[in-house]
Task: structure prediction
Amino acid sequence: MKPVIVSKIIDKDVKTIWSAITELDQMVLWFFDNIPEFKAQVGFKTWFVVANEDRTFYHLWEVVQVVEKQSIAVEWTYPDYVKEPFLVTFELESIAQNQTQFTVTAKGIGQFENFNIPEFTRESCKGGWEYFTTQLKNYLEQ
Result:
């Protein structure tokens, strides 16, 4: 299955966006508000729970790549459903002095095709990343 790719142009510089996607005190304002901790370091792991309707999703993240102010990649696992992680990469590209293209790429979501769970569909994944990238843009441009 092709990766899900969502991209937004944000009217902020790369440094500002990098801080918003890697510093916990900012992440909780636009991303998941219950992330207990986060560090932009390879090998860093964190977990948290998200409840939706009658289902609970245990999220386990491990940072697997960091290129300062360019990209950060996280292996994302739902251990109650699948053991193999999928890869989420956040990339930043300066396109003007105060403008950055922010791109999220989710690879490996095809492993969820066998589940009859609405949150695991390609459409849900794309919709989720559209939501979060819009949240980030709104947070930074307010």
In short: The longest strand covers residues 55-67. The chain has a mean pLDDT of 93. The longest helix spans residues 122-141.
